[in-house]
Design goal:
about 140 residues, alpha+beta, Transcriptional Co-activator pc4, Chain A, four-stranded antiparallel beta sheet, three-stranded antiparallel beta sheet
Length: about 140
């Protein structure tokens, strides 16, 4: 789909690669809603007891989280000394997942190649962002 950037990363394999479940963090961005990024935590195979949830955050929020602790709500980010970003995701249960900072940076660079930073803020974009955030 044109104007859609997605990325997925395995954040946990239960220490049993190939024999257990995988926990995945997905990121999705759409050029029609350029301020927002949707984070999706899921497990494969799916099971109600395994991690799951969806959060909408500002694209800039992810960029800030690459350099400094960011957030005080249901999504918090902070860089770690080993080149990863710690995502604290609060839903029906709290989850903490580590993601390589390079993966987040590459994802953001791809989105900004389509809609540069600062070029996002028309009235229709703000309406879409507000609607998305209210869904969370």
């Amino acid at each position: 789909m044109e104007g859609v950037i997605t990325a997925h990363v395995v954040v946990d394999d239960s220490g049993m690669t190939g024999h257990g479940h995988l926990t995945l963090l997905g990121l999705a961005w759409h050029k029609d809603d350029p301020l927002a990024v949707v984070l999706t935590l899921s497990a494969q195979p799916d099971h109600p007891a395994l991690p799951r949830g969806e959060w909408a955050v500002l694209r800039d929020f992810l960029r800030y989280g690459l350099e400094e602790p960011t957030g005080d709500g249901v999504v918090r980010l902070r860089p770690t000394e080993d080149g990863r970003i710690l995502f604290e995701l609060i839903g029906s249960k709290p989850y903490a997942v580590h993601v390589p900072a390079t993966m987040i940076r590459d994802f953001l660079d791809e989105t900004e190649a389509i809609v540069p930073h600062g070029a996002e803020a028309g009235d229709d974009v703000m309406d879409a962002l507000i609607a998305r955030l209210l869904e969370s």
